[in-house]
Amino acid sequence: MKASDLFVKALEKEGVEYVFGLPGEENLDILDSIRKSDKIKFVLTRHEQGAGFMAATYGRLTGKAGVCMSTLGPGATNMVTPAAYAQLGAMPLVIISGQKPIKKSKQGNFQIIDVVEMMKPLTKFTEQVTNGDKITAITREAFRLAQEERPGAVHIEFPEDIAKEEVENPQLFEVVTIEMPHATPNAIRKASEIIKASKMPLLLIGAGANRKSACAALKRFVDTIGIPFFNTQMGKGIIDERHPLYIGTAALSDNDFVHEAIKNADVIINVGHDTIEKPPFFMHPDDERNVIHLNFFPAEIDEVYFPQLNVIGDISTSINSLTESLQPIAKSWNTDFFMNIKEHVQKRLSKYEEDDRFPILPQRSVKVIRDMLPDDGIVTLDNGIYKIWFARNYPAYVANGLLLDNALATMSAGLPSAMMVSELYPDKKVVSINGDGGFMMNSQELETAVRLNLNLVVIILNDNAYGMIQWKQEKENLDKYSLDFNNPDFVKYAESFGAKGYRPESVSDFKRDLETSLQTDGVHLIDLAVDYSLNHEILNVLLKEYSEDIKK
User: Fold this and answer.
1) Is the pTM of this model over 0.90?
2) Mind giving me the DSSP string for 235-266?
3) Which of 26-40, 82-96, 259-273, 515-529 has the lowest mean pLDDT?
4) In CATH terms, is domain 350-539 a member of 3.40.50.300?
5) HSE-CB for 142 with a 13 A CA cutoff
6) How many CB atoms lie within 10 A of CB 297?
7) What superfamily does domain 185-344 belong to in CATH?
């Protein structure tokens, strides 16, 4: 059997449905083998980053490794950011890159760099295939590591001449499911004792808890035990945020309302969070509260995070065990202060939700989008200042209802991730929120979205600047400098790709255009002028003052 055919058979064995990529001449044998597969769909993108971000999002949403492919040299270097995106964000991803023949020189060192060495610090596993007989073992190991907790990126380099080889005795390895070990009874007992001794415990839900079984276990825990909870940005929606014990999302690292709750808690049960995601709070050596780290893997000790207890094992099993252990004393906590925090959060977050000034305030845009989407609608975010407003103000009703990255926090991943969501869930309403800066970094993927016949609404929050960094300049009392730019006509730009473009001139126009876009098939782009003038006053000045008021 030809080596490239064997490789595709190994991918099929792993359950691969898609390969996203931009191939080159070094991948042509693999591409032809994919062509002959009736199980794998090849999705051509306009940039390797688009392929990598789509594949990583597939992994994030399904738990199965997404697969992307590039050629050698510059194609492989363009996969660096998606590799880091998946590695830091715990998204299972397999990257395949081509390479010149390794048994004889074809073109000297033209385009050749050491991609395997380059990928080492960015992946869990990286290896060059040097013999056709090793293909299936390398593939099985790559997928195992990509999907095993903590999930992440892996890389396989496939030289052109190896792909052409004939493999005499091909062997396909069975995909063996690995069950996560359970936390020890002693760890559960210690955690239960710490929680029972507390008066004001608080539950933190992070991205690692975003597994279906863990979602159900956490809801049962909160309903049964009655402990108030908050979440990280990547933990939004794991429990429906309309729950009466939800007090808010830690969109900032300090000086927000939820941080007053954190300061007053005597125990924090930290489920599924690690410090790779931006820390939602900082621990200090003189803290009196206990922090319980409950996760698939031990806490990585950091100067801002050093929990007193690790409960390591399958999250859902650990939570179910804690629920059984704590049930006799359920609902005996002092929650008055936390519920007061919740009232402050709701009061302050709603202040500008009905403000119809235009250009639109980010808070108002969040309210309009939430009101118009069904409960199971999905919003994906790129990275920018608006991410803070959506994390704080957008109530997520389902897991992955608000999809964002707060680990690598790269710009330009928002549109490709939304495209993957739309491809996987064609019956759901999908809205992609982008800043004008981040959108232009991968805007060419609009053509891919149109070619795939996706149903997708792309909203560009347009301020003609890198607004997040301008906010940081103002926060640091620096002069506004060198962050403004000019944008193309986004309506014409969208139409040039075959999408439908809109440019509302009022909030009512925006509502109308969004409603039309959501109810009409195809790719729709809304160029929405946004007013960020209140960012500094609210997030840097007033928020700290409001938080101080809670203490009084």
Assistant:
1) yes
2) GTTSS-TTSTTEEEEE-SSSSSHHHHHHHH-S
3) 259-273
4) no
5) 28
6) 14
7) TPP-binding domain (3.40.50.1220)
